[in-house]
Design brief:
Layout: H1 4-11, H2 16-36, E1 39-45, E2 54-61, E3 78-80, H3 85-93, E4 97-102, E5 109-119, E6 122-131, H4 141-159, E7 181-184, E8 190-193, H5 195-203, H6 223-231, E9 235-241, E10 244-255, E11 258-268, H7 270-310, H8 314-339, E12 344-346, H9 348-362, E13 368-376, E14 379-381, H10 382-403, E15 413-423, E16 426-433, H11 450-462, E17 466-471, E18 477-483
Parallel strand pairs: 13-15
Antiparallel strand pairs: 1-2, 1-6, 2-3, 4-5, 5-6, 7-8, 7-11, 9-10, 10-11, 12-14, 15-16, 16-18, 17-18
Helix pairs in contact: 2-4, 7-8, 8-9, 8-10, 9-10, 10-11
Length: about 500
């Protein structure tokens, strides 16, 4: 199904500012559909038709307060204006017109109200309100109030004052019509209150009659109302009393740019805010845990470093230095997790300080090793990032210790390249160097070195991955690792 943008750009001559005006209307027209208890259909003129005899459906929305006429979307359907006299009159005269017609594509008799969408003094589209005239509805005060509110918005659309000139950013938890509606006079006296709106007022501790009173009489700050009228735009404000939180969304009614009252939508967001606070509390706790783990690991690393300085055995010093680097690798991951809101880390934030740890240990006057990191692993969960950091630390350290060993066959300078490539199948990690290569007869499976054992265990047991180590095509050593990323582990989107 084609989108609104695809249809208007392919089939109409609308300019970008005109498209933007309609898009602002579409962001809030679910509210209009609920107020009108009807389907809303938006049509735009087909390009190349100089007499504007054809229109194409670019969008439609169904009400949550009533029954829809259409089970499938209408986008892309072409209407001939000679078959739709109400559409023609609204388009040519710029008036809101109501009358009888038929459904699009089905021929069912319905009631239709056509509303020209006016921008900069001329129509750029037509919005059709369609509903089944055979359905008997109770003519309640709520229905009359809602339809009256819709009619006021309809005439604002025809006048070009709605959607408002300023941007209308709908909050993520924006109220819907079913959450509660207040209709206020120009001096902010409540003229109508829906049952759900009254319930929201009760939750705020207001139990007196709402109709005929001003919100200020209940202790409400009327600044959002005044601001909405002053700036001719929707305004959102959150009201908190005790443990109760209610979101208030204010829409001013305008006539010839003059305020004629406001519509206030209310939504009880107490539970939403409670969950938000709980989530923030959990996030703060998790971050604090990671921060403390990082600090403890750094303390252990410092103790190992101090202990190493007191040893006389070169073998003992080397062993403690290796342990220190492994611990610092884990600490780097926890430091990164402490900054994130989730259990996922951007591995690029891990690999950079990890390389610095290894480079710090090997750079000297006798040896200059360059490290080059290419590619990106994206966002990884902590249970993958931690062992992967340890593995890369081992591989880079092995390259330094063996590929560039100073001697008859060795070199004092070299380069270690880490390539990270993520795909649907998993994460591919390749570590290459330009050193002396593997010794003749080397067998990874038979290797019993501590670093190699740690690396193999983490790859095969912790990450369920595979590792392959061989001499490179142009010399040196090439290590290839594949780590599958399950659906659970890949639930965070790469950015």
């Amino acid at each position: 199904m084609a989108t609104f943008n695809e249809i208007v750009r392919q089939h109409s001559d609308l300019a970008e500012d005109e498209i933007a005006h309609i898009q602002k209307l579409l962001r809030v027209w679910n509210i209009l559909a609920d107020l009108s208890f009807a389907d809303l259909v938006l049509v735009v003129p087909v390009k190349g038709d100089k007499k504007q005899r054809r229109f194409i459906v670019s969008a439609n929305v169904r009400p949550t307060t009533g029954t829809t006429l259409y089970q499938s979307d209408l986008t892309g359907v072409v209407l001939h204006i000679e078959d739709r006299p109400l559409l023609e009159r609204s388009w040519t005269k710029g008036d809101v017109i109501e009358g009888s017609s038929t459904t699009i594509g089905r021929g069912q008799d319905i009631r239709v109200e056509t509303v020209p969408v006016t921008y900069k003094g001329r129509p750029i589209a037509v919005m059709r309100r369609e509903y089944d005239q055979t359905v008997v509805r109770k003519n309640s005060s709520l229905e009359r109030a809602y339809i009256n509110a819709f009619e006021r918005f309809a005439h604002m659309i025809a006048d070009g004052t709605f959607p408002y000139a300023s941007a209308m950013v709908e909050p993520e938890d924006a109220p819907r019509i079913g959450d509660g509606v207040l209709l206020l006079s120009p001096d902010f006296v409540i003229q109508f209150a829906s049952p759900n709106a009254i319930s929201n007022l009760h939750r705020l501790g207001i139990h007196t009659a709402a109709v005929g009173a001003r919100l200020s009489q209940f202790g409400f700050d009327e600044t959002p109302l005044s601001m909405a009228v002053r700036v001719n735009s929707a305004v959102t404000e959150e009201i908190e009393r005790g443990d109760v939180a209610v979101l208030m969304r204010v829409f001013p009614f305008l006539s010839a740019d003059r305020p004629e009252g406001v519509m206030v939508m209310l939504r009880d967001v107490t539970e939403v805010r409670r969950r938000d606070r709980l989530l923030l509390s959990k996030e703060a706790t998790i971050r604090e845990v990671h921060h403390r783990v990082k600090n403890n690991l750094q303390t252990i690393a410092a103790l190992l470093r101090l202990q190493g300085r007191r040893l006389e055995s070169e073998e003992g010093k080397a062993a403690l230095a290796e342990s220190e680097r492994r611990i610092r690798s884990i600490a780097i991951v926890h430091e990164t997790l402490a900054r994130e809101a989730t259990d996922f880390v951007r591995f690029a934030d891990v690999i950079v300080p990890l390389v610095a740890v290894v480079q710090e240990a090997v750079t000297s006057e006798d040896m200059q090793i360059e490290f080059d990191v290419k590619g990106d692993a994206g966002m990884l969960p902590g249970d993958i990032a931690t062992p992967l950091a340890i593995i890369l630390n081992e591989l880079m350290q092995n390259a330094v210790d063996h590929a560039f060993d100073v001697g008859a066959k060795g070199t004092k300078n070299g380069c270690v390249t880490v390539m990270l490539e993520r795909s649907d199948k998993g994460l591919d990690v390749t570590v290459t160097d330009d050193g002396v290569g593997l010794p003749e007869g080397f067998d990874l499976e038979a290797s019993e070195g501590l670093g190699t054992s740690i690396m193999k265990t983490l790859i095969t047991s912790e990450l369920a991955g595979t590792i392959h180590m061989a001499n490179g095509e142009h010399g040196g050593t090439c290590v290839e690792i594949n780590i599958p990323l399950t659906m659970q582990r890949s639930s965070a989107h790469d950015e």
